[in-house]
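Feature request disguised as a bug report, sorry. It would help if multi-protein outputs had a clear separator. Right now it looks like this:
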Amino acid sequence: MKLAINRRQAIVGLGTAGALTLLGRPAFAAKKVKLGVMRLASHAPSYIACERGYYKGEGLDLELEFFEAAQPMAMAVASGEVDYAVTAMSVGLVSLAQTDAIKVIGGALSEEKGLVGTVILASEKAYRAGVVTPRALSGTTFGVTKVGSSFHYMCHKIAEANGIPMSEISLRRLQKVGAIISALESGEIDAWAIQGSIADKLLAGGNAMQIGLVSDYAPNYQVTTVFTSTKNAANEREQTAAFIRAHSTAVDDYNAAVVDKTATAEEVDDVLNIVHKYVDSERPLHAAKETFLSSAMRIKQGCALALDSVTDQLEWLKAKKMVSKTITPEMLFDTSYVETI
């Protein structure tokens, strides 16, 4: 009987030095690094790579640092509090690039036609008042964490596609995702756009209604990116490449199990058990698994970066005078680590 061992099993089973030898790379002393994440299903590859030993297999002693918004994460990378992070582009992140503090080195979550992706929601109160499609967003309030956040950008894309001037939509800056959820549930705000894993819970509770999908207005939107300090990108190339490799292995696991559904039932269960440990852990496992599967969004294979999308986000921030017009793509993006698409 021939025993088949996949790459994941080999890495976990052999340990750091053995795995690196197997993969044709020299072992090196474990380096302590911190990774900034949020408790969202879209951060699943970070959890999978930790739990399955992928970071350790690349010689990284990695610790997860949890955040509730994108901008504080960018500040933490710039200050050296964390080494790498996965989150959406924001005013704070782009502005820090001007000071040569941060570089976007890869892509993560992305919108894709045919997948649920990010859901556009109306509060139950607003829906009853006629906000039943994105075309009805004129005169409404829309939840964002901060001006220049990914939520703001999505609102801009939705409004632009429906011919609604942004001046006709009132942005409510609520700082944290949890605060936006509460505001939508209470009817304090009329609308929001959020990943399906969170949208599903709001819809199930009857506190919100689905009125559209962001992928209808931004089908190739690079929602989140992988970024690090300029110092790491320039001077810690072996470490940074090791991080990308480990993370990419976990991305493959996630996409196969949850997005493409090409993995075995046992593998799907294992992946979802890992995600549930970090996300929606207060909910019953079976309920959380159903949400993870029904609302899955693709993570870019190999951490590939959708350069057209992130450049569009940069140009929008510049056009709206939220960041300096002197910031160039070269100042923000280091494309030497991953494929650009």
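(second protein starts here, but nothing in the output says so)
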Amino acid sequence: MSQQPPITTASGIPVADNQNSITAGPRGPVLLQDFHLIEKLQHFNRERIPERVVHAKGSGAYGTFTVTHDITRYTKAKLFSAIGKQTDTFVRFSTVGGEKGSADTERDPRGFAVRFYTEEGNWDLVGNNTPMFFIKDGIKFPDFIHTQKRDPQTNLKSPTMMFDFWSKAPESLHQVTMLFSDRGTPDGYRHMDGFGSHTYSLINEAGERVYVKWHFKTRQGIKNLAAADATRIAGEDPDYAQRDLFGAIAAGNFPQWEVKIQVATDAELAAWGERTGWNPFDLTKVWPHGDFPLQPVGVFELNRNPVNYHAEVEQAALSPSNAVPGMGYSPDKMLQARLFAYHDAQLYRVGTNHQHLPVNAPRCPFHNQQRDGAMAISNGGSAQNYATVDAAGVHGKGMGHGEPELALAGAAARYDGRGHEDDYTQAGNLFRLMPAQERQNLFDNLAGPMSQVSDEIIQRQLGHFDKADPAYGAGVRAALKARGRNVG
């Protein structure tokens, strides 16, 4: 075993004795001048940065993205410039609602956040293992997440809070159906798909915009845990997914996903929306593959484990606002909220200069006028800390990087489409795709927590199931009856 280097303070000053505090005599009180003791205790008290409000429990790994198909007709982003081109990546998988010490196998969506270290800066695709979400407007996100956390009085998880919210928000039904299906408890992180979930955009050299949905299709095959197995593993090995991912990569069994996109122009989305009545930028909806087929882009592989979990996974700070030239956003209300919320959360959780940390730093040169604050590692050196005003003005149209102008329509107001939009058809379509056994699993998984809530909430939620498909409502009623809740 190699000899360890001598202990120093964080400032590099050699420590004479790491075993004994400085005291006034052999049995006297400790002296304030023992800086090593104070620094050691101070750092220990601060070892835990605030955990993420959501996605607190997670696993990470490094890898590569390799282009296999040409999409330069859609985007000028340099990472797609040539077939065979590789880009270094980092991924963080996670559960959503649980705390940092919660079990990996809980029924919950899974975060699927990928960073691409491109030559034009970091591109972060921050999504989930589901192509839809519970709500369509970010103003309801804090309310929704509070229902997934703990009751303010009992400090317990509360099915009443969850189903009270969901039963009053039929827009959630699509994702609730996915959550309580077999896919609500994936077998680790390697055997699940990933999605950008939101609608994003791509911009080509001519300044033309198309809208896209990103898909990561696992090459390991989809595997899910039965509800009983997920519960058992939560007790036997709460770090099951972390162990599986780390062990597979350490053994050279590198997981891979095929990266694909759905593509649509403004005109195509407008025609589709007119025909279906669905808003293509609504996160509670998906784009059916029959209308917008998947197109292959590349292969994503994970092939290197982190060396230090805290430095590389816990401090990883991803945000959908990180989009490189050739990429852009959409009018998706949830995406618009996340563009602000994620970066703001990282400023609070990790610090003002979190982008300076190695896992977050771009692999290309960067320069700005941001200075000072905590963790200002280089702080810009002697470079000028302000930008002068160009008296001639900035020429050219668009929003930067050659992105075309985004046409807006209508007066500014708070628009509520709830009660007027179709929240049931896509949830019913998902239900009808399930084989008989998966439907029964769905009924049983829902009946467990629903059996613990009031009749009023149950009836409200059953009404949504009925509208999605009468067999859906009937199946949950039968499962509730089997648990002693005869709700008619």
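Even a blank line would do. Unrelated, but nice: Residues 333-349 form the longest helix (17 residues).
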